[in-house]
Amino acid sequence: MEIFNDFSIKEIVTCFMVLFAVIDIIGSVPIVVSLQQKFGQIEAGKASITAGVIMIVFLFVGNKILKLIGVDVNSFAIAGAFVIFIIALEMILGIEINKTTEAKAASIVPIAFPLVAGAGTLTTTLSLRAEFHDINIILGIVLNTIFVYLVLKSAKWLENKMGEATLSILQKVFGIILLAISIKLFTANFAQLVQNYINF
């Protein structure tokens, strides 16, 4: 199949790391544990598969929506860069810019959406299309879905082993990585927009 001609380990790793940092499932372990205590056992398989499906569907449908409203991928990627930038600031500074509503269910809402496949993740997923091939983004999503499943299954154990201090440090480290990614995403797509404007 032609789609596999674009297969790239480097792109898969990059897509995985970008989405991993945005999803920040490790940093969300305390939230998951809290939801387990409030709503009972969370169905890890159901939650992770639902989140993965949402991300993959949006990867393709989202682009069609953009074309319908007349927005190009580069412009959307720049908007996505701003969203990722804000998420990174939240992670680094420990502030909450995006207020989330109180949970009323567990496995699908709010675990699958919006905790895993939230606005930031979906925006990032579509923004990646400006630089990477679909097959590599999909594999990056699948790998993250597997990782999310493993974390959800062992959330309580992870919290006990790692502790709040370690989780906080990891969150800040991934926040800095995410900040750098957002700047790269912005500069690359802004340069492309300028080039397209000049050529136009």
TrEMBL record:
<feature type="transmembrane region" description="Helical">
    <location>
        <begin position="105"/>
        <end position="123"/>
    </location>
</feature>
<dbReference type="InterPro" id="IPR002771">
    <property type="entry name" value="Multi_antbiot-R_MarC"/>
</dbReference>
<feature type="transmembrane region" description="Helical">
    <location>
        <begin position="173"/>
        <end position="194"/>
    </location>
</feature>
<feature type="transmembrane region" description="Helical">
    <location>
        <begin position="12"/>
        <end position="35"/>
    </location>
</feature>
<keyword id="KW-0472">Membrane</keyword>
<dbReference type="Pfam" id="PF01914">
    <property type="entry name" value="MarC"/>
</dbReference>
<keyword id="KW-1133">Transmembrane helix</keyword>
<keyword id="KW-0812">Transmembrane</keyword>
<feature type="transmembrane region" description="Helical">
    <location>
        <begin position="47"/>
        <end position="69"/>
    </location>
</feature>
<feature type="transmembrane region" description="Helical">
    <location>
        <begin position="135"/>
        <end position="152"/>
    </location>
</feature>
<comment type="similarity">
    <text>Belongs to the UPF0056 (MarC) family.</text>
</comment>
<feature type="transmembrane region" description="Helical">
    <location>
        <begin position="75"/>
        <end position="93"/>
    </location>
</feature>
<protein>
    <recommendedName>
        <fullName>UPF0056 membrane protein</fullName>
    </recommendedName>
</protein>
<keyword id="KW-1003">Cell membrane</keyword>
